[in-house]
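This entry is passed on directly below:
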Amino acid sequence: MGVVIPLDKKSENDEASLEPLISLVKEDMSGVNALILKRAISNVEMIPELAGHLINSGGKRIRPMLTIAAAQMCDYSGGDHIKLAASVEFMHTATLLHDDVVDESDLRRGKKSARVLWGNEASVLVGDFLLGQAFKMMVETGSIDCLAVLSDAAAVIAEGEVMQLAAAQNTSTTEDAYLAVINAKTAALFAAAAHVGGIISEQPQEKRSALESFGRNLGLVFQLIDDALDYSGQEKTMGKSVGDDFREGKITLPVVLTYRRGSEEEREFWKRTLEEGDQNPGDLEHAIMLMNRHNALEDTIKRAHHYGAIASDALAIFPDCPQKAALMDVVRFCINRTY
């Protein structure tokens, strides 16, 4: 079982939540959700059934909300941000379907994963269908710049998955290599989601770049905290089992830091459990103990604070408004989240 690590001392930041953002984008997100359901329809019965299983499984939908909030902050008055936000969510959903196959995951958001219910082949193919629908919606906006940003993100995400596959069970992975993986695998879509909100609003390059930077650094925060929670969270709030990354042999930052700082005997433990996959009862608890001994979880969270500050500073160029304040709250929420 995991050990709960306090992410920060009690402060006003603990009050940060997604509620201000959810409230501001509620009307537009209703349009996004309706479009998602409409575009998931297919004459092939299994496609809407499998897609709906994941689409309706309770995700936070932070990425499409970033697109909507960015467009609102930039005073966009059209309707194409709805299609772009739906495209972003379809890209994310497709990635989850593919990830669960690669990782052989049995659970997704506390429920049986699609691959368990429908099989690996169906999960991959439905993921491909959703990607196709996402690109159709991008084309319908008529924005070549948005299409370029999101298609580039799709390629980068795939590269990140391959990079992670290559780094899996490799205890010699460096922090730089780990950051390169999560920058591609996770942060790229956050960056694109915020970026296209500025593009569709026809903002100058300075503000488009600021939104891209905000999204990218928020994505790094999100993944760093996710990796810390895998060893320090509570299963009832996480929707997945503590230690999934350990059992799957994933090399995340808490492992990288603990391995580097450990004794030779401790490194042998990581090689046995992660490289060789030879795991015994009690090994997860021992792994968490080593992480606490070397402050790896605490330092992973400190890294998240660093990238969170960069994300917040990126928004300084925008005039104060409710959307800007809500996006700043999202940064604090992602740092202090427990799920």
